[in-house]
Amino acid sequence: GTWKTADCKDNEGHPSCTPCKEGQEYTEEKNYLDYCRRCDFCDEEHGLEVEKNCTRTQNTKCRCKANFFCNGSSCDLCEPCITCEHGIIEKCTPTSNTKCKGKESGSNLPWLLCLLVIPIILAIIWVLILLTLKHRTQLQSYGTTQSTSTTKLTLCILFSDVDLSKYITSIAELMTLNQVKEFVRKNGMKEPKMDEIKNNHPQDTAEQKVQLLRNWYQHHGKKGAYDALIKSLPKDIAEKVQDMVQKDITSNDENADFKSENERQSMA
């Protein structure tokens, strides 16, 4: 519950210590820190509430609010419990989601719908095949020109080092705080730096995510950063990031081609 304000002056003496601010700061163990740690904030927008208030010797303890749950060991975000349409097997708890009963089968309606829908789908597929065959010659001619441009773009994204600076904020919006922490931790960021960023923005989790990613990128450098990010992200988020970067690069290439064409026409 204290922090060091001055070193000891005698052999086997004790340093000068100052108590942490009650309800705002804490230290849980004997230490030689020159500061107290900031108390955690239980973010209600993320489904959290205070279980135990912060004291000089113990950090704030958060828990999930009613009708929210978290099944991880460390929860910075609680998910809302699902609502069952056909009855409950197990109620939602702070550590597990609701388990619902399945819809009971008692009607031939689904089979009838399948018998109606399947022929329609097959007809649509057949029409698409016919249209594809009809325009194959035109598509092959057009595809030869387009394939070169597409290949260049694909190689650019896969093998070049994309500058992630302007995408950091957008990438942070796609990820939860837990996902950002796990990513930067696996990629070399130390806990003291993570604590510093958290303490600088104690009630702004969105800014915490941005600063964690920005600090990782600054230390990692441009080379290999895009590849490291994509390989570490969950598949759905990685695909969204790739799509965002690809669209941006495509737009820049199209603008460059348009400008170049205008310049050639002007010279002609």
UniProtKB/TrEMBL annotation:
PANTHER family: TUMOR NECROSIS FACTOR RECEPTOR SUPERFAMILY MEMBER 6. GO terms for molecular function: calmodulin binding; tumor necrosis factor receptor activity. It is found in: Cell membrane; Membrane raft. One of its GO terms (biological process) is necroptotic signaling pathway. This is Tumor necrosis factor receptor superfamily member 6. TNFR-Cys repeats lie at residues 19-62, 63-100. It comes from the Eukaryota. InterPro entries: DEATH-like_dom_sf (IPR011029), Death_dom (IPR000488), Fas_rcpt (IPR008063), TNFR/NGFR_Cys_rich_reg (IPR001368), TNFRSF6_death (IPR033998). It comes from Loxodonta africana (African elephant). Residues 256-268 have a biased composition (Basic and acidic residues). Keywords: Apoptosis, Calmodulin-binding, Cell membrane, Disulfide bond, Glycoprotein, Lipoprotein, Membrane, Palmitate, Receptor, Repeat, Signal, Transmembrane, Transmembrane helix. The chain crosses the membrane at residues 109-133.
